[in-house]
Amino acid sequence: MTAYWLARSRINDPVAYKRYTDQVPRIIAQYGGKVLARGGKYQIMEGPEKFHRFVVIEFPDFESGVACFQSPQYDAAARHRRENGAGEVETVMLEAGEFTK
């Protein structure tokens, strides 16, 4: 069943953050992921206004998304934003549920 990587981020250092984002599309593709939305226009409808960048990535299944996030390649890329405070990110992996009536 399809799964989605949902991330909200706040960029504190755009140059250092870009070192992270330049690597991520290639890593995601290795796990069958497809970026559906990254950046772009948004409007916060409810909740804190702490985050100003939103990402949605589709994976063929939950396990592929989790494996991507936990991979050594992604960890190395994420280190660029984690270790120097380039950005704060909240990430959730969500399996698409079946809609019932």
Structure, explained:
This protein is of the alpha+beta class. It has a domain at 10-42 and 61-95: Alpha-Beta Plaits. 35% of the residues lie in helices and 30% in strands. The chain contains 4 helices and 4 strands. It has a 4-stranded antiparallel sheet. α1 runs antiparallel to α4.
- Percent of residues in helical segments? 25-40%
Low-confidence stretches: none
Average of the residue pLDDT scores? 92
Structural class: alpha+beta
- The gross shape turns out to be globular
Percent strand: 25-35%
> Class of one domain, according to the CATH hierarchy?
Alpha Beta
Give the gist of this structure.
Helices cover 35% and strands 30% of the residues. It is α+β, with helices and mostly antiparallel strands and 101 residues long.
